[in-house]
Amino acid sequence: xxxxxxxxxxxxxxxxxxxYGWVRSGHQYPxxxxxxxxxxxxxxxxxxxxxxxxELEMSAFSQMALACVLVTSSMGLVGWLLSRxxxxxxxxxxxxxxxxxxxxxxxxxxxxxxxxxxLALAVAFFLVLSVGHFSIGMLLSGAEGSLKGLLLNPxxxxxxxxxxxxxxxxxLPRWLANTVDLLGGMTIPLMLITLGVSLxxxxxxxxxxxxxxxxxxxxxxxxxxxxxxxxxxxxxxxxAVLVLQSSMPVAVFxxxxxxRAGRSPEQVASLVLCSTLxxxxxxxxxxxxxxxxxx
Length: 295
Fold this sequence. Notes:
295 residues, mainly alpha, Na+/H+ antiporter like fold, 81% helix, globular
């Protein structure tokens, strides 16, 4: 079991460690350029390549979509309440609680822990969350200031293109499928390396709040995922995937948005760092509970 858990977590930890070590060794890292490359090219291709291969029944997708909306809305409320309690800017904390790292951490963990069926369900969660993240999330974070800009965002366009492929069981032309697979493949490594770079820039005074708020983000997410999955009677595998995705740490994209908008990027990076480090300690316990039960 320990070897299985390590195989799930090691790639994420190693990739982030490369970014951390790169900056700590004195090398330059063009964060703004990488952020734009990932947001405008890499992620749209990742969305197309991942979702065009997903096989989901409409009922399973609908249930997971509903669960995602309920969990996300509830976590937004938790983030707002905590921002009032700690005297923090809600435009920093609420997006961090609304949008977990369900893509570059959640998808591979769901695949390695629960197989192809788990991945398909995790993709459904990721799709619904992405619609909110790259519309409402960008607006809240200040990364995009106009409705026209949101509608023309490459990620939103890719989501609109992939919906007919997903629901009508269509296939992308081979040349296009190969292209988006190639370009989408750079996204997760660059996001994780950028995560490591952001960790290296965090000031010590941010770590106290970061640890507490990061811990609350994971625990509240797992609790709400379990409660909502139980309330809407999800099947065991779907329930496990929902809890896993809901308990992911703060998404790297929140940091990238904060960098682009110039809105407390170090504070957001602290949330990303602390919640990610805590996730490496807590998510193995979660998987150790679910994985044997599903066999």
